[in-house]
Amino acid sequence: MSALILFSTASLALGQKAKPPAKAPKPIIFAVVNDGTTLEPIAYINRSRLENPVGGDSDQGIISAFAKAYYKTGATYRLVFGGTDAGTVTVKKNNAASECSKNTADVTVKSSKVIPKGFVMALATNAVIKNKSAGVRRKPTVAERSEIEALVKKEYAKHKITASVLKSQNLTAIDVNNDGKAEMVGSYWVEVDKFTRDLLFFIAEKGANGKYAFGIADYRRVEQKDVMSQSIKDVDDGIYHEMFLDSFDFDGDATNEIFTHQASFEGAGFTAYQKKAGKWTRLFENSNYHCAY
Known about the structure:
The chain is of the alpha+beta class. It has 4 helices and 16 strands. Helices cover about 15% and strands about 40% of the residues.
């Protein structure tokens, strides 16, 4: 009898198939927004390319699978601030069952470098952070701001606007390639009249002459009639402005790409800029739906 039991057990063991190892989640880049309380996907990393992640308007099954892979309670990601490792981002819960922002998660941030607040945002990732420097992300000096704002006024003048009063959502000094020369990323606006705002987003860097020039400059006019809320004051508070998130060298070429965030009434837009052959270009754009306004 005991021999029969042993034989049956052995036969059963031989008949069982080993479970295939679970696939590791794809490398991904997240935005850390809402005062460091929310994780929102920007892009998957596919070697030297960025690819669209699961959107907030995807099928519920796809969103749930994404949450299961990336938003398990306690899952931890590296915080990217100043282009390098700056701490951890830990998932508290996923929002897959929520009415809005289904592909996001509630998180906590732990960092000795930064407390995300307002327009001071960051990135998070499960990818290898190749930039091992201390990182640079700071406010501009008085001289730097003065030089940049002279450029900003010239850009407005090209569009027939005398920018006597400049307003900025942010102006940040970074160093994307650790050469000791700060790039400037800024979001400015001018109150043209009671119902019109002219917005300017830019990346500026020093040339061989030691002076700053725009590598990227995106100029847009927003009128109250085109604002979904019908209130231009929402634009003054940051809606529709393209804002700096942080920089991150996702492709290992020793130059950080620059990532930005643009809030809207029904979602968020993300853009990545890359410097190749001495020129800044838009590498990637993606819009993530949250819910109807």
